[in-house]
């Protein structure tokens, strides 16, 4: 560094190099270039941030000046992953940055590895929010993301003796150079207390929420750059802090330690992300998080409104929208009513009109355990004023239901936002539906199942509210960034317009039968497999052969996703190989990855089973040429960026009707993996887009699942299927757990249970037969490369740019 400066005593330096050196020397005060890559990373982020700041301010000012409608995307999760490379790609400065970094004797990739994932989400729902932010900025839409700045994000997973071991994710330990703290926009969020009624100066009866315990919400802003369009949007994450007077009160009462305790209590709210995917535990702290996010975010929007327009709300609904990412933030419906009435003096009718026109709700799952309900008792203690409002919303709503279906009290009971009983509960999804103008599912099948099943009564009552928005993923991160080899080949073959218009990938179709192109396409795949193999070797010490099929299932571990069915297939392959039945078999490397919720015993046991099967298989020289199995620990966004480009076969094998959409399936498809899957979620649309001959379909349909359930006898299936019987025998005799007697009994019992909700045995035969078809397609190199190319070519529809354009046209700016 000193040397560099001596060589170049004065400008002109190129601006990126100049800025990087300045931050390294003066912002961080480091002069030894080999000091630590972390300082180089920090200096580089400061350099990029500096370039973003002007566009960021301009974006905000333009939106204010033009009086554009702003959409506020409320989500308890944003699974952002790393930001550095995405910013370089979107700002188109990767090349000069690479050169500038080289002066520190460092590869850009090494600097990128200094960044830890922002893991503020569990899985698909949180990653969807992150892809949406990228697409909104890239489409130049005025969208603000609102979320929580958890001190501890998604836990880290290690595998010890095959078991998942969790450790805390201290992602902020070395600071977060992307965020800007904005204490000047701090808001106050209330809890507890009670409602007090009074007459205002006009003699009108009004309510106020008093004797509350307050917590401060301090925002941290993160820039969201669009793809080469000078737009920089904002993700605003709230951190909870104690109020000063809270401390003082206790302090004056003589108890310093109680004051500190109170401070801790307040800051608890944003301490940790709940690690459950697709289920709710009903913990009070979780409700506090939900309300904290909803209240702080709505106050923020209203504060800005009042500053600009005063207490005049006639145009508010035309200029503001709220998209609620699942039921988690639906308490916002009641909170907006409270703020408009109690804080801004509106009457019920006017406030309700505004609420209904601004709120829109996205449903993400049909699983009963995810349908959020809160005990009225708990809710009433924590948020008494909101409970009053929910009762009033419900009473008026049920009045309308009664008017439409006179005397149908059963229907009123079914549709009530309050589930009556000894312990009445609030149905948050119903609050979301009643309080919104739009209710959407996340794939065509999912939306249909919502309309016919879960929300049937509501669909009958409000058919115009329901619509589908099939999920998507951002092609910048999930193709251009993570698959540089394919990006180059695409740029060369069809130009680079696909990055902002993924439909252009269709033009690859004309190259699918060109052997020279296919060869290059598969050479890229092989490079990516090589990289993935290196990761597997490093993490699991298992060698993957590049000529073998890379067969991958990575996603949260959940029974409905059926990692169990996959490992039963692996056991079946192992059994076949040992029997010498290898005709038509394609050598496979099977990779599993994913986190189980720490309290989900069955999911954790499935991880253990995968680990034990992997140990037996990988140690047996007789199967070494045919089969390798690994469980790759700590699946996260950055891992997926290495995994999906190196995958041949994408496993999307959920019980039909249970996976709302899936987005992992789309990332794999974009990167040329072929899918084996059920008719579930977006798989159906993927198959339609790519053509049935390029998709491996198996299993019962959603309707057939429900039919079969009525007389489901897995023991009969096992008895009449010799292959499944042998697999079950291997499990039952303890072949994979010789020194751990009986540990897999719960899994065996689940497969054999007539009540098995996931119908694993029902789909086994269809699955392994389908896997045989996969084998023969893979053995025919020309056929496989064609399928692979056609998958990438048909993936345009699954860009989140398409999804967001639909939200824009049908919901936000209709
Ligand atoms: C895409 C993604 C998911 C969602 O995967 P599904 O297969 O759709 O469940 C979950 N976690 C991470 C880290 C992802 O990148």
TrEMBL record:
Gene3D superfamilies linked: Glycogen Phosphorylase B
GO molecular function terms listed in the Swiss-Prot or TrEMBL record: glycogen phosphorylase activity; pyridoxal phosphate binding
Chain segments annotated as coiled-coil in the UniProt record: none
EC number: 2.4.1.1
Key word Protein biosynthesis present: no
Top class in the EC scheme: transferase
GO cellular component: cytoplasm
Modified residues (N6-(pyridoxal phosphate)lysine): 667
GO biological process: glycogen catabolic process
Assigned keywords, A-Z: Allosteric enzyme, Carbohydrate metabolism, Glycosyltransferase, Pyridoxal phosphate, Transferase
Pfam families: Phosphorylase
Alphabetical list of InterPro entries matching this protein: Glycg_phsphrylas (IPR011833), Glyco_trans_35 (IPR000811), Pyridoxal_P_attach_site (IPR035090)
SUPFAM superfamilies in the record: UDP-Glycosyltransferase/glycogen phosphorylase (SSF53756)
Listed cofactors: pyridoxal 5'-phosphate
Superkingdom: Bacteria
Family: Belongs to the glycogen phosphorylase family.
Biological role stated in the UniProt entry: Phosphorylase is an important allosteric enzyme in carbohydrate metabolism. Enzymes from different sources differ in their regulatory mechanisms and in their natural substrates. However, all known phosphorylases share catalytic and structural properties.
Name of protein: Alpha-1,4 glucan phosphorylase
Gene source species: Seongchinamella unica
């Amino acid at each position: 560094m000193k040397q560099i400066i001596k060589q170049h005593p004065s400008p002109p330096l190129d601006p990126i190099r100049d800025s990087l050196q300045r931050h390294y020397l003066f912002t961080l005060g480091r002069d030894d270039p080999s000091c630590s890559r972390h300082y180089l990373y920090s200096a580089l982020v400061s350099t990029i941030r500096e370039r973003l700041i002007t566009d960021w301010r301009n974006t905000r000012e333009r939106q204010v000046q033009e009086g554009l409608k702003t959409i506020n995307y409320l989500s308890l999760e944003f699974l952002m992953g790393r930001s550095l490379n995405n910013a370089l790609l979107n700002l188109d400065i990767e090349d000069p940055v690479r050169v500038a970094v080289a002066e520190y004797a460092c590869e850009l990739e090494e600097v990128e590895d200094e960044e830890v994932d922002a893991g503020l989400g569990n899985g698909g729902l949180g990653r969807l929010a992150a892809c949406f932010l990228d697409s909104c900025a890239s489409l130049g839409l005025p969208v603000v993301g609102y979320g929580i700045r958890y001190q501890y994000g998604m836990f880290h997973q290690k595998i010890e003796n095959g078991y998942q071991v969790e450790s805390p994710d201290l992602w902020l330990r070395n600071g977060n150079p992307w965020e800007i703290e904005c204490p000047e926009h701090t808001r106050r969020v209330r809890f507890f207390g009670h409602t007090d009624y009074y007459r205002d100066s006009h003699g009108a009866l009004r309510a106020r929420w008093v004797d509350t315990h307050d917590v401060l919400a301090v925002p941290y802003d993160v820039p969201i750059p669009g793809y080469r369009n000078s737009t920089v949007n904002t993700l605003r994450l709230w951190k909870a802090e104690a109020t000063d007077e809270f401390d003082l009160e206790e302090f004056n009462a003589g108890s310093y330690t109680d004051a500190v305790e109170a401070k801790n209590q307040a800051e608890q709210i944003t301490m940790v992300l709940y690690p459950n995917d697709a289920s709710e535990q009903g913990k009070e702290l979780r409700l506090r998080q939900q309300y904290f996010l909803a209240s702080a975010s709505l106050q923020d929007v209203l504060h800005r409104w009042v500053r600009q327009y005063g207490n005049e709300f006639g145009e508010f609904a035309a200029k503001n929208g709220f998209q609620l990412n699942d039921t988690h933030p639906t308490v916002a419906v009641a909170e907006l009513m409270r703020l408009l009435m109690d804080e801004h003096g509106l009457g019920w009718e006017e406030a309700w009109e505004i609420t209904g026109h601004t709120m829109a709700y996205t449903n993400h799952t049909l699983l009963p355990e995810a349908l959020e309900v809160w005990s009225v008792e708990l809710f009433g203690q924590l948020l008494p004023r909101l409970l009053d409002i929910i009762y009033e919303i419900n009473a008026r709503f049920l009045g309308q239901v009664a008017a439409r279906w006179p005397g149908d009290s059963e229907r009123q009971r079914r549709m009530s936002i309050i589930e009556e009983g000894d312990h009445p509960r609030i149905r948050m999804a119903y609050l979301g539906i009643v309080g919104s103008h739009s209710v959407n599912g996340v794939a065509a099948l999912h939306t249909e199942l919502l309309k016919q099943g879960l929300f049937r009564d509501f669909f009958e009552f409000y058919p115009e509210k329901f619509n589908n928005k099939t999920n998507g993923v951002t092609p910048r991160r999930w193709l251009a960034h993570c698959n540089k080899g394919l990006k180059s080949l695409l740029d060369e073959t069809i130009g680079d317009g696909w990055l902002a218009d993924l439909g252009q990938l269709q033009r690859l179709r004309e190259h699918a039968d060109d052997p020279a192109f296919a060869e290059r396409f598969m050479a890229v795949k092989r490079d990516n497999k090589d990289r993935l193999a290196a990761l597997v070797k490093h993490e699991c010490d298992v060698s993957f052969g590049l000529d073998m099929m890379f067969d991958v299932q990575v996603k949260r571990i959940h029974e409905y996703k059926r990692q169990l069915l996959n490992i039963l297939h692996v056991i079946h392959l192992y059994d076949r190989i040992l029997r010498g039945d290898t005709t038509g078999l394609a050598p496979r490397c099977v990779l599993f990855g994913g986190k189980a919720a720490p309290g989900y015993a069955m999911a954790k046991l499935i991880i253990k089973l995968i680990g034990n099967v992997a140990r037996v298989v990988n140690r047996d020289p007789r199967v070494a040429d045919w089969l390798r199995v690994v469980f790759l620990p700590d699946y996260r966004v950055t891992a997926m960026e290495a995994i999906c480009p190196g995958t041949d076969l994408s496993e999307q094998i959920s019980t039909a009707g249970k996976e709302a959409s899936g987005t992992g399936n789309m990332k794999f498809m974009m990167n040329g993996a072929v899918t084996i899957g059920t008719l579930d979620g977006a798989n159906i649309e993927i198959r339609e887009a790519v053509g049935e001959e390029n998709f491996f379909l198996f299993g019962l349909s959603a309707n057939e699942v429900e039919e079969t359930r009525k007389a489901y006898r897995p023991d009969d299936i096992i008895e009449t299927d010799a292959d499944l019987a042998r697999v079950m025998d291997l499990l039952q005799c303890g072949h994979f757990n010789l020194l751990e007697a009986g540990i897999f009994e719960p899994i065996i019992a689940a497969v054999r249970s007539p009540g098995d909700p996931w119908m694993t045995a029902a789909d086994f035969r269809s699955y392994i037969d389908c896997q045989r078809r996969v084998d023969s397609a893979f053995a025919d190199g020309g056929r496989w490369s064609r399928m692979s190319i056609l998958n990438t070519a048909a993936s345009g529809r699954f860009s989140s740019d398409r999804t967001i354009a639909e939200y824009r046209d049908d919901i936000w700016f209709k």
